[in-house]
Design brief:
Helix content is 39%, strand content 24%. The chain is of the alpha/beta class and 161 residues long. The strands form two sheets. Strands 5-4-3-7-6 form a five-stranded mixed sheet. Strands 1-2 form a two-stranded parallel ribbon. A hairpin with a 2-residue loop joins β6 (137-142) and β7. α1 runs antiparallel to α2.
Amino acid sequence: MSKTELITREGYETLQQELNHLWREKRPDTTAKVAWAASLGDRSENADYQYNKKLLREIDRRVRYLRKRLEVIKVVDYSPEQKGRVFFGAWVEIENSEGELLTFRIVGPDEIYGRNDYISIDAPMARALIKKQVDDEVQVPTPTGIKEWWINNIWYPQAKG
């Protein structure tokens, strides 16, 4: 399954900031360290040179990925027609029959890393919630069978309340 090519405005800006930081600050700094370490002579036993050279490759790989990804992803902004229903970018609070509460935001697959309150639009939970409204029952397929959840609340960052 391929990644959905959608991203929230905040997610896009975060990726853009990461790219700018890597390209304008981290890469020049690392390149200078590689040049300095190379000037010391024998590179085969130079830990600074080897470490920073590896770091430079990782930076370049991430820069290439971000540049390609930022060209193809589509920013989805909030639209008033979304009010009251679950769509991309929504924050959702759900509850199951055991009283377990979950609150998360449905975002693009590029935005979920480092966040435990975001889920990808590609996740089964998100797919089950799309177009539903408060008090709807949602059946979510899981490895252990179908789980039932009820929607308690839906809101969007631009239209909180």
